[in-house]
Write a structure and sequence with these properties.
The complex is a heterodimer of chains A (about 100) and B (about 550). Chain A is an alpha/beta fold. Chain A has two helices and seven strands; from the N terminus they run βββββαββα. In chain A, α1 runs parallel beside α2. With about 550 residues, chain B is of the alpha/beta class. Chain B has two domains: about 200 residues, Glutaconate Coenzyme A-transferase, CATH 3.40.1080; about 300 residues, Glutaconate Coenzyme A-transferase, CATH 3.40.1080. In chain B, about 30% of the residues lie in helices and about 15% in strands. Chain B is built from 18 helices and 23 strands. In chain B, strands 3, 5, 6, 7, 8, 9, 10 and 11 form an eight-stranded mixed beta sheet that branches. Chain B has an eight-stranded mixed beta sheet with strand order 15-14-13-16-19-21-22-23, sandwiched between helices. Classes of the chains: A alpha/beta (about 100), B alpha/beta (about 550).
Chain lengths: ~100, ~550
């Protein structure tokens, strides 16, 4: 178990709370709250992947610069699954607009 | 000057059979005499085909071959399409065989690697199936072939039925060039349901102690299909199948293509694609295609091999499958590979590694797997002359003499389930070439043949790229956070998307939120049984009694 924290300077404030995914083996849940700053609190069952998380988040926020508070509970998801859940949340936020 | 003997092979064959005469009653030998029969008929240095297909294994004969006296039978040159069973390699440890030419070594790939390193096995070459079958008639003509049949009649006519696979091809190579054809049979019957191989091609029949080994290799439990695979399946259907109007195709054997099969009756139907795509297939009879067949998507399926549990279902659907007048499907790997290479618009497969240039391989460190049929079907056959809409859709616009191209699609998640990156700068295969002393790097599908790479991030339309630099940039754009993907620049991705060389899900109208398991036409094995009206009978290991 490892706790990771990241901050970003993003430009698109989220307007609403969204929740996607589940905490199941190989999966994760993502909760996004409206906030003044972009922060991420990640709890992951797989230790030693901080750099991979950083890379996934950099790539995601470059394409979709969402501003908000992200809470992530990970149970060994691959980078592909993490990106799937983040982009699903992004789509749900776009639907709200 | 003495006249040359123009029938020395026939004389040699007759001499061997005469030497075994006391063990034979007509063509038939006793089960318990199998080792003696092999010792009498196989000579040191012989080229021997031991039938190891994808699904079917001549397991009685392969077990017997490990028991022959290595003082009498040694230095055999084995030719095998699939190295599947431990005894296929035990014969090298025992000094019975010394050289191997093969196509695929999936289950034994680690041990093959080790035996090469230890000099226990000398590898001739790694082949595609068709190549290996071809060489049986040119420069690897066998002295002895050891094959498996379901039923044999008293004359020696063989019934191989559902799992005919490559048995007739192997037998033909020996039967018409004075090789010796030795058959293990599950059952001896008065009359075979149909003749798959005529008695005149067969020299020796040995009733087996138990039925040959048969594996349900292509059964994928829908329960294990992930939402990521569903997303990729949706992207494939929209961004490739629909876009290129793909009507004739071959699918690989992974969960990615199973997901596509299960999305046709749901997502494909919503898109109004029924009757427009995926009509004619070269495919093992995968249970996950049952819902699409039952929904009227599929016109025809020809199969390389059988699949355990699908017998009754296929028997009841002769309009779709290739079925004999006895009611049982006939599979044929050689013709299936020809069809897959020349008669299909598209091949969709998967791999373990793709390099920065787009070359892919399933050979990784310590694992010399071979490739089976993938390099064959996953390549652009330059001898093709007939045209279809999909093939034409890849034709370059600027060349008056241009022709179409086959779609060769690699479908991979950017990271494997072991969290290792699939996209790498250099394939492990480059190192393996040195370790195994191979003439060429064991690449499964070359970048020049690869027209599309599909990942959970997007689709790279490689056939549209003009240079290797552009091709690399397109691969980087869909390679996620692998070392290759991290080189991708946002401005470059924007440019590639605008020019249609890269598409993200939103560019082709795919909503990631729709990627839910409820979108699969069947979510469990039970669902597949229900779709089949109870005709599909899943193997025990796929059944749940909950």
């Amino acid at each position: 178990m490892e706790k990771l924290n990241f901050t970003y300077q993003n430009s698109q404030p989220v307007k609403k709370f969204v929740h996607v995914g589940v905490v199941a083996s190989g999966d994760l849940e993502v909760l996004i709250y409206p906030a003044e700053k972009t922060t991420l609190e990640i709890v992951t069952g797989s230790d030693g992947f901080k750099e991979v998380w950083q890379n996934v988040l950099d790539r995601f926020f470059t394409r979709y610069p969402l501003q908000g508070k992200f809470v992530i509970h990970d149970f060994g998801a691959t980078p592909g699954v993490v990106n799937l859940r983040l982009t699903q949340a992004m789509e749900e936020l776009n639907d709200e607009e | 000057m003495s006249e040359r003997n123009w029938h020395s092979h026939r004389d040699a064959k007759n001499a061997r059979l005469a030497g075994a005469a006391k063990l034979l009653d007509g063509k038939f030998a006793k089960t318990e005499d199998v080792v003696k029969v092999l010792e009498a008929l196989i000579k040191p240095g012989d080229k021997v085909v031991l039938e190891g297909d994808n699904q079917k294994q001549a397991s009685f004969l392969s077990a017997a071959l490990t028991k022959v006296d290595a003082a009498k039978v040694h230095d055999l040159h084995m030719i095998m399409s699939s190295i599947s069973r431990p005894e296929h390699l035990d014969i090298f440890d025992l000094g019975i065989a010394s050289k191997m030419d093969f196509s695929y070594a999936g289950p034994q790939s680690t041990r093959v690697s080790q035996m090469i390193a230890d000099n226990t096995m000398q590898v001739g070459d790694i082949h595609t199936y068709l190549e290996l079958f071809g060489r049986l008639f040119i420069d690897l003509i066998p002295n002895v072939v050891l094959v498996a049949a379901d039923k044999v009649d008293h004359e020696g006519n063989l019934y191989t039925g559902f799992n005919t696979e490559e048995t007739p091809t192997i037998v033909e190579a020996a039967a018409f060039h004075d090789g010796i054809v030795i058959v293990q049979a599950n059952d001896v019957v008065d009359k075979v349901p149909r003749v798959d191989i005529p008695a005149g091609w067969v020299d020796v029949v040995i009733p087996a102690d138990k039925p040959y080994q048969l594996e349900p290799l292509f059964t994928r439990d829908p329960q294990a299909i992930s939402e990521l695979q569903i997303l990729m399946g949706m992207m494939a259907i929209r961004g490739i199948y629909e876009k290129h109007n793909v009507q004739t195709l071959n699918h690989g054997v992974g969960f990615n293509t199973s997901a596509i099969e299960l999305l046709l009756p749901t997502y494909g139907e919503q898109l109004g694609l029924k009757g427009k795509i995926c009509r004619n297939w070269e495919l093992n009879p995968t249970p996950t295609l049952i819902p699409a067949i039952e929904s009227g998507w599929v016109e025809s399926i020809h199969s390389f091999g059988g699949e355990v549990g699908m017998e009754k279902y296929i028997m009841a659907r002769p309009d779709i499958f290739f079925v004999g007048n006895d009611g049982t499907m006939r599979s044929n790997r050689a013709l299936g590979q020809v069809a897959g290479q020349y008669a299909c618009d598209m091949f969709v497969g998967s791999t373990l590694q793709i390099d920065q240039f787009g070359n892919s391989s399933t050979v990784t460190h310590g694992r010399l797997s071979g490739f089976g049929g993938a390099p064959n079907m996953g390549s652009n056959p330059t001898g093709r002359r007939h045209s279809t809409p999909a093939w034409q859709s890849l034709k370059p616009a600027d060349d008056p003499l241009a022709k179409g191209q086959k779609l060769v699609v690699q479908m991979v998640e950017t990271f494997g389930s072991n969290k290792k990156p699939v996209f790498v700068d250099h394939l492990d295969a480059e190192e393996v070439r040195k370790e195994a002393k191979l003439a060429n790097v064991p690449i499964m599908i070359y970048t020049e043949d690869t027209t599309h790479i599909l990942t959970e991030e997007g689709i790279a339309y490689l056939y549209k790229t003009d240079s290797m630099e552009e091709r690399k940039a397109a691969i980087e754009a869909v390679a996620g956070v692998t070392p290759v993907g991290l080189r991708s620049k946002p401005q470059e991705v924007k440019n590639l998307r605008e020019r249609g060389i890269v598409a993200l899900p939103e560019d082709i109208g795919v909503r990631r939120q729709d990627a839910k398991r409820s979108l699969l036409a069947a979510q469990t094995m039970d669902d597949l049984v229900e779709w089949s009206h109870g005709l599909y009978n899943p193997p025990v290991k796929f059944r749940s009694w909950s």
